[in-house]
Amino acid sequence: MKNLVIVSFPAKEGMLEDLKETLKIALPDTRSFDGCISVATYIEDASNTIHLIEDWESLEHQAKYLNWRVKTGLLDILEPLLEGGASGLKATICGEPHHDI
């Protein structure tokens, strides 16, 4: 991985299937966005959370992507599906791997 970003989407009770369908529609654009190397999806059943494990050419590419998503309204679409609304979404920006540890 070049630049790891982990994004967690905690679904409201009963909204996991709707969240999965929304992400199925949204993720092809994510994967084709400039600088995106890959996006893998995982579901944590115990917490109704979808985790995206993203790899980016640079954190600047990921920041441009995030700004684009905000401008195009994806957070507004996700708001009613997420536990805690859009503020329940959690992004962990890990960056580049450290090979000296």
Automatic annotation (TrEMBL):
Name all ABM domain ranges: 5-66
Keyword list, A-Z: Monooxygenase, Oxidoreductase
Q: Does the keyword Signal apply?
A: no
Q: Name one GO molecular function term.
A: monooxygenase activity
Matching entries from Gene3D superfamilies are given as: 3.30.70.100
Q: Note whether Oxidoreductase occurs among the keywords.
A: yes
Organism's domain of life? Answer: Bacteria
Give the protein's recorded name. Answer: Antibiotic biosynthesis monooxygenase
Whose protein is this, by species?
Answer: SAR86 cluster bacterium
